[in-house]
Write a structure and sequence with these properties.
three-stranded antiparallel β-sheet; homodimer; alpha/beta; 15% strand; seven-stranded mixed β-sheet
């Protein structure tokens, strides 16, 4: 199974290669980014998307601030600081982006060696961030695959695959690992309005990996379950509260209700960085959910599909209560109810529950 | 409250005036159809849509076969028969279309008067079909309005409004009548993928009628309910089985599950012609649900939004079990569970349940 790489070093190691996600699903176009401005523009325009992938692209992008000919350590550090500030502004609310850039800035700030070698030190750190992300994906995938029986028909929502990360993906990694283990697995992908990440991205990357996939409108998932064609649901998470309530892409909550109605297991899989010990429950998350641009609903794909001035309710996320979730998979463990994620995340491999 | 007329006679009475629904929501364009071919083309291209509206347009269209100068009764009848055959072929599965054309053919077949006056007799029959439809809409609306309290926030799916009929609409007629009665009423319209009748049509006609309306993606309805913003759900029906199971636009069934989960009343409103005494339950309907064109999902917005060869699951309808339905409104009565619709429909005003 050949998997795409959403973000990596370019072949000559002197740039950042991204799969341009704006061109999907029509074409698979890779671009080598060679300047800070090009990386900034790729993040702003969603050519690269998905929290982990953005973090990796930005970390790699910072290295482009230096050319390895620097003679002054302070000047080199300032270039890195400016690059990090610029890239952080590309998507100010992206936590992974901010976190990855913080790591890069720390390396520069603590650097005491030859200024000409700072670029090498930054390159090593960005490579480490990429490799940690790959390991995280693999770990989620291996734990998640234990929940996928041979012959399973998996219903998923949004994109949690290789396109969003430096590796196999988050929730969808479980499907890839199950397939790599020789299990027969088939996926139903909710198209996921308003931005259609399911039909544009998930269907594309599964098809490319040779895993059978069928696309459906979000409102058709219930019929599919009623027809006995779904063995389990598997979705990602943007934030997981202490009590196991999960904030994820809009449309996740009704899917969980419908799955419970049909007695179908509903699994969430996400990096342990998604667990938030500062958020007691979904109630606190609910108040933070932003309304996205109304035009995503009124004219999302180049055509006016509602009155141009129509009022729109367009929340980015919804909250699925823990009671509807059969298990939560992280890179550290498969968690079963009752959930209690009240310890900050430790190093990978360590159990996150108390 | 000024309501649009989706289909009616043209001002000079010599043609069929339709609101061209292909131009919505961008513009409100009326067209006067003056030949059988123009009526045929309008039905095929969905310029006119909605079962009752199609029936009326076709009935009116048949009159265009004659010019009132006919001298031979048999020749005039043949022209009517040819016109009816042609129009029936425009949408072979539309029951209302076939039924309305049958009525027109019967008038011609039984006609014994001056051939020059056959056109007038046909015009009277088409006008009667239109007026019966208007009365049916009004009757559903008045019965349905009893379920809508002052200040109600109503969530609906697809388009069941004036655009689909010759009058106020079917389910949405209840909203119009409630507003005419002076009740404050606000509507949330599911956009209704794949064909977006909710955002394109329902939002447009409610806005035009001055009724507050908010559009949302189908996957956001559950969040809206959880936020306490929905007082009741109101949807139409394509077919109602004897036991009260309801076949309707895809996405209705999950909405009913989600409404039940939140303890929100779920009402169905439809003409009594929709009740099918030959169908014992939704199980029999389920087997008949056709898969629609995959490109509605793969490139429904004028742009490729899934791999061009992606497999698609795209059923036209789903089945909502009677147990999830709080009441079923027809032009004859408000029916409460347990449902038992085992008598053929009688004349309007008569109770349809046993």
């Amino acid at each position: 199974m050949e998997l795409i790489r959403a973000v990596d070093w370019s072949d000559d190691g002197a740039g950042v290669r991204i799969l341009d996600q704006r061109a999907l699903p029509a074409s698979e176009a890779y671009r080598d980014l060679r300047t800070i401005d090009e990386v900034y523009e790729a993040i702003v325009t969603l050519a690269v998307r998905g929290a982990p992938a953005i973090g990796i692209a930005a970390a790699m992008g910072v290295t482009l601030a230096l050319d390895g000919q620097e003679t002054e350590r302070l000047g080199a550090r300032m270039k890195v600081g400016l690059a990090a500030s610029r890239l952080r502004a590309a998507r100010p609310t992206a936590v992974n982006l901010s976190w990855a850039l913080q790591r890069m800035s720390s390396v520069a700030g603590q650097y005491r060696g030859d200024p000409r070698d700072l670029r090498g030190a930054l390159t090593a750190e960005a490579t480490l961030i990429r490799d940690e992300d790959r390991a995280m994906c693999r770990s989620i995938g291996e734990r998640g695959a234990t929940l996928i029986p041979d012959g399973a028909r998996v219903l998923t929502h949004c994109n949690t695959g290789a396109l969003a990360t430096g590796g196999l993906g988050t929730a969808l990694a479980a499907v890839y690992v199950a397939a790599q283990q020789g299990k027969r697995v088939e996926v139903y992908a909710n198209e996921t309005r308003p931005l259609l990440q399911g039909s544009r991205l998930t269907a594309w990357e599964l098809e490319r990996a040779g895993i059978p996939v069928t696309v459906l409108v979000d409102g058709a998932a219930a019929s599919l379950m009623r027809d006995g064609k779904v063995d389990l649901c598997l979705v990602g998470a943007d934030r997981i509260a202490v009590n196991g309530d999960v904030a994820n892409k809009i449309g996740t909550y009704p899917l969980a209700i419908v799955a419970a109605h049909h007695g179908i297991p509903f699994y969430v899989a996400a990096p342990s960085s998604t667990f938030d010990p500062a958020t007691p429950s979904g109630t606190e998350v609910g108040g933070l959910i932003e309304q996205r641009n109304a035009d995503e609903v009124r004219c999302g794909f180049g055509r006016l599909t509602a009155p141009a001035d129509a009022q729109v309710y367009n929340p980015a996320f919804d909250v699925t209560p823990a009671a509807l979730i059969t298990a939560i998979v992280s890179d550290r463990a498969v968690h079963r109810p009752p959930y209690r994620f009240d310890r900050a995340a430790g190093p990978p491999g360590e159990e996150a529950t108390s």
